[in-house]
Design goal:
Strand order of the largest sheet: 1-4-5-6
Number of strands: 6
Shape: rod-shaped
Number of helices: 6
Number of domains: 2
Structural class: alpha+beta
Strand content: 5-15%
Length: about 180
C-alpha cells in the first residue's frame, strides 16, 4: 500500500488547522520522510522477491527471464551431459582390463580419452542470444546468488534468434559455448 503523504497530512489535521500555512509547514517538516519511505518500500519489494525465489530450477529460470527476457521468456536450464566411464570386464570377477606397456613397467587402465578433455557442469543455462559483458556478469552474479553451493554451471548461447547484430560475429555451428 502506497501512502499519499499530501492527503495523509491533511486528513490528520483538525479541520480548523487545515489552512495553507499550516499544511505547507507540515509538508516541509515531512519532506525528508517521503524519499525514505519510498526507499523502504523499494527495499521491501527487493527482499520479498529474493525470498520468493529459491535455488530450484524454475525459480532461477524465472529470475533470469524477468531480467533478461521478460517478453518472450526463452531462457531455460537443462541438465549437463554426463559421460559415464566405459569399462571392460573380461571375467566375472569384474576387474578392469589392463594392458602391459611394450617396454614393460606398470599396467594401464583403459579409459576413454574424452573423459579427460571435458569439463563437468551440473547444469547449463540456455540463452537465445549472446549477452554483453555487463549482462553476463550480472547473470553470473544472479545464478551464483540463487544456486546451491557446490553446483557448477555454464552458459550456452543458442543463436537461433539474435538480440544484437554483434552476436553474429561469434556464431559457430549454431551454438556458442562460454
Amino acid at each position: 500500500m502506497t501512502v499519499d503523504w499530501n492527503r495523509f497530512i491533511i486528513l490528520l489535521l483538525p479541520i480548523k488547522l487545515r489552512v495553507g500555512t499550516v499544511v505547507a509547514f507540515i509538508r516541509a517538516l515531512l519532506a525528508g520522510l517521503t524519499p525514505t519511505y519510498d526507499k523502504q518500500r523499494s527495499f521491501e519489494a527487493d527482499v520479498l522477491y529474493k525470498i520468493n525465489h529459491t535455488s530450484q530450477v524454475w525459480s532461477i529460470e524465472a529470475v533470469l527471464n524477468d531480467i533478461f527476457d521478460a517478453d518472450s521468456r526463452r531462457i531455460y536450464i537443462k541438465d549437463a551431459e554426463y559421460y559415464k566411464l566405459t569399462e571392460l570386464f573380461p571375467d566375472p570377477e569384474l576387474k578392469h582390463v589392463t594392458l602391459q606397456p611394450d617396454a614393460g613397467g606398470d599396467a594401464w587402465v583403459i579409459h576413454p580419452d574424452e573423459l579427460y578433455k571435458l569439463e563437468t557442469y551440473d547444469f547449463v543455462i540456455m540463452f537465445p542470444y549472446v549477452l554483453t559483458t555487463g549482462e553476463e556478469s550480472r547473470a553470473r552474479a544472479l545464478v551464483d546468488y540463487y544456486r546451491l553451493a557446490g553446483k557448477r554451471h555454464r552458459f550456452n548461447y543458442e543463436l537461433k534468434i539474435t538480440k544484437r547484430s554483434s552476436a553474429l560475429a561469434n556464431y559457430e555451428y549454431g551454438k556458442m559455448y562460454f
